[in-house]
Amino acid sequence: MASTAAGKQRIPKVAKVKNKAPAEVQITAEQLLREAKERELELLPPPPKQKITDAEELNDYKLKKRKGFEDNIRKNRTVISNWIKYAQWEESLKEVQRARSIYERALDVDHRNITLWLKYAEMEMKNRQVNHARNIWDRAITILPRVNQFWYKYTYMEEMLGNIAGCRQVFERWMEWEPEEQAWHSYINFELRYKEVDKSRTLVMVHPEVKNWIKYANFEEKHGYIALARKVFERAVEFFGEEHISENLYVAFSRFEEKQKEFERVRIIYKYALDRVPKQQAQELFKNYTVFEKRFGDRRGIEDVIVSKRRFQYEEEVKANPHNYDAWFDYLRLVESDTDADTVREVYERAIANTPPIQEKRHWRRYIYLWINYALYEELEVKDPERTRQVYQACLELIPHKKFTFAKIWLLYAQFEIRQKNLQNARRGLGTAIGKCPKNKVFKGYIELELQLREFDRCRKLYEKYLEFSPENCTTWIKFAELETILGDSDRARAIFELAIGQPRLDMPEVLWKSYIDFEIEQEEYENTRGLYKRLLQRTQHVKVWISYGQFELSIDSDDRIQRCRQIYEEANKSMQGCEEKEERLMLLESWREFEDEFGSLANKERVRKLLPEKVKKRRKITAEDGSDAGWEEYYDYIFPEDAANQPNLKLLAMAKMWKKQQQEDEEEQEEEEQQVPQGKEAQENSEPEEQGPAGHREEPENEYDDRDDESSSSSSSSDSESDDGDREDDKDKTEETKADTEKL
């Protein structure tokens, strides 16, 4: 972009393409290349070869070429290739002095050009100018000491000339610059070629990598210096320490000792390394250790290797996630089975130090078992009761009892103190639990403890505290009453039951009432039992209560027990006539029928049978959650006799339906007889089973109704039907037909 005098930038105009449509003939890149090749102009012929016949022509040719080279150099002095071509041309004419002058002039232009120095030195060596070549190499390595190629060429030249001292001197000058590893290896190989072993031990001081230490040790081993090789490995282990430790060093050290048949040293090296090398970097170490134990170890050694490997895996897991308590459990199970008590304690202390970050019980459920296992280990395995007590106390101090607690810990602590014959501490611990954080399990465990100790007065006090804490717990009331019953104080037990059923809120009242009734039956207080049943029936009319009442009366050994039982069934049937749950009423009647089948007369049996309902299949609409119609479903309903008496249309409708079916069957028979051609006896025999079909069909039960007929009857008797308008018109026609048919009947 050009700039104007005012400093504004002027944007060049861009040619506008008027016709943007694609060209009719499309040209590809391949076509362009092919056409360019075909249309290539004829190559110019090479210049003719010039034959020089005398010295004058040769001088003219030299002058012309030199003038050309000088012109090229004058045009661009920095193009080193022009200098090199000029010098090589002079060299081809055996003008070494002139070539040397050109190289010197070129070095004045660019003395850091590596190619220029190499070409210059090669020219001198080709022409056997050894001192000049040494001079050039000295100047090159002085100016550019980090260019390894100069050093390699220089040392190679000196060695080829047999100047071993000079070559060593060059290597020593080179090593002062502390070059890369390959340079050191070249120096070492040079010294080894001339049997100078003592001068080959300086590499690891400049490049102290693991591989160089290993090479150094292998070098000493190769030349028979076993003690020096072992010392090299030991120096390497000491040099790297525990911060920069490497498994390759220990693997090489172990293999070295294995070659020397020092198997105990090998085992110690492997164990030392496995304790210090990071686990993710110790795979090769584990593999070699396992192979070694399989070759030279016993079964115990192989198991130690496997256990060590698993320990490292668990260490990695718990380091990655310290709150992974499942990993801690596995790790602790492993160390408990294989190591000493101090190591196990150390792992337990590390595990319990990882307290859950959130004070919510669901996060503490797994964590608390670390403390439990720790205490059990100290008590059962180590047999240290004092340390076990400390573990329990530390755990109880750690739990935030104001937010939540664990009854299991309190109970385990109390049981531990009892095992140690320290009952006072056990009671003190459970009392503290009830005072700080009362829980059902703590109360139950404390009461069970006192029961085992036969301290019944303490049990009564605990039950009282328990009921003050949770008066709606029916199980507690029942257990308290059972305790008094066992102790022979039935009046106290009865008073407890009375207090229990008088509570405004209970979690399982039916269980409580059943226990109270069973208690009175055991005491043979039948009048009290009848009173309880009547009081219970005032609260609930559940069918099972009536059935239980009847069975109770039947179980009493008296003369009027059957009459009393029958009277209870009659009262129950009356009270449940208005019940919406027809299945419960059916259950009552079936129980009554079983009673009459066993103890009643024929009249009573017939009476109960008449009270049984009819099972009717019906259909009803299903409504989806969004209020849309979801179709129809079939269900079974029970129609009791008094319900049928209240709805007379049901019986009439059933009779009309049966009559209509009979009419349709008669019409079908007549049509078949008109169309059938008699074909002898075989046709008659075949027609007989066909005539039996309608008769068999007529024997279907009368209590299967179609819901549409029920809906039609209900629509004619009341306005609460749920059928559609079209269905109502069809039902009206059907009801008119049934009325006419009934009049004919």
Fold topology:
Layout (H helix, E strand, L loop, with lengths): L1 E2 L5 E2 L18 H10 L16 H21 L4 H13 L3 H14 L4 H13 L3 H14 L4 H13 L3 H12 L5 H13 L9 H4 L3 H13 L3 H15 L6 H13 L3 H14 L6 H14 L2 H22 L4 H14 L2 H12 L8 H4 L3 H15 L2 H14 L8 H13 L3 H14 L3 H13 L3 H14 L4 H13 L3 H12 L7 H14 L3 H14 L3 H13 L5 H15 L6 H18 L2 H10 L2 E10 L5 E11 L1 H6 L2 H27 L4 H19 L8 H11 L7 H20 L1
Antiparallel strand pairs: 1-2, 3-4
Q: How does this model look, in words?
A:
- With 745 residues, this protein is mainly alpha-helical.
- It has 38 helices and 4 strands.
- The strands form 2 sheets. A two-stranded antiparallel sheet has the order 1-2.
- A hairpin with a 5-residue loop joins strand 1 and strand 2.
- Helix 11 runs antiparallel to helix 12 (226-240) and helix 12 (226-240) packs antiparallel against helix 13.
- The N and C termini lie far apart (117 Å).
- The model is unreliable at 1-7 and 677-745 (pLDDT under 50).
